[in-house]
Amino acid sequence: MKLNAIKLDRETLSLSVQADIDFEQFDQFAEPFAKAIDCRVVEKQWGADRHQWLLEFEGSHLQLHYEFYGDICWLSTEREDEFDVLVYLAELMKPYLAL
Q: Quick check: pTM over 0.85?
């Protein structure tokens, strides 16, 4: 798995991820991605132009989103007190960043 960039955003409680993702084969990105950051996949949803997975990390529920038209992938939480989980996961992603 190779990531091009990651960016935390406290205001939106999200962590954006830039990578080469094929919408039709999202599982091939998302499964190894979830495993690399020690998350368990709880639920998978998708539509015509979007994937949304529910992940669990040590009791925290996170959403993994991917939108085809914007080529945008991000993790988010609804709870402000769980933003630190995203900060920690960003650290776990650093070894996968392309130099």
A: yes
